[in-house]
What we know:
single chain; alpha+beta; four-stranded antiparallel beta sheet; 31% helix; globular
Amino acid sequence: xxxxxxxxxxxxxxxxxxxxxxxxxxxxxxxxxxxxxxxxxxxxxxxxxxxxxxxxxxxxxxxxxxxxxxxxxxx
Length: 75
């Protein structure tokens, strides 16, 4: 599993993020404090506190393409 910190502060960023992660077949979670949601769920993401940094947890070791795409959201 790999993890990266990101920030999603606008609805357009959430929409872009979800469209990126939906392209990948492995599980991807978003963690905010003690809450964890499926990163492919736009409703789940909006249930988190988006004013704080989020941790993306990628359940795959072969995810360099995804990490490259997520650089635009890194904090």
